[in-house]
Amino acid sequence: xxxxxxxxxxxxxxxxxxxxxxxVIVYSGKTASSAPYLSSQAMEGEKLWQDNxxxxxHQIYGLGGYLGDDLTNVISNPHKGExxxxxxLNAGSKSMPKFNFTExxxxxxxxxxxxxxxxxxxxxxxxxxxxxxxxxIKYK
Length: 140
Known about the structure:
Blueprint (H helix, E strand, L loop, with lengths): L1 H27 L11 H12 L7 E2 L2 E2 L17 H10 L11 H17 L8 E2 L5 E2 L4
Antiparallel strand pairs: 1-2, 3-4
C-alpha cells in the first residue's frame, strides 16, 4: 500500500514538474511581433470608444455589433477618412446618437481609429494557415 502511495506521489510530482517547465518555456519566450505602440491620444480615444460603448453597434476587425459599420479601415477608406468620422461623431444618424464630443475628444477617437487602421486589414483575405496550425495574416 505504501509503495503505491509513493508511486502516485512520484507520478504527480513528475506531472507537476513537466507542466511547470512547459509553462516557463511557452510564456517566457519572445513573441514573433511586439505589441504596437499606442499614443496617449489614441489611448484616450480607446477609452472614449469603451466608455460610450461604441462596440455595441460598430465592429473592429469584425468583432462588435452589427448595427453600424465595421470601422477597422474607415480612416484609410478613400470615400471616408478623418473628416467623415468627425462629422458622424456629433451629427449622428437615424440609429446613431449625437454624442456632443469636444474637438479634442473627436481627435482622440480619430487617433484610436487611425491606429486600428494602421495595424491591419479587415477582412484579411491574405490569411494563410501554416503547417503548425498558426494563421499568418497580412499586416500594414
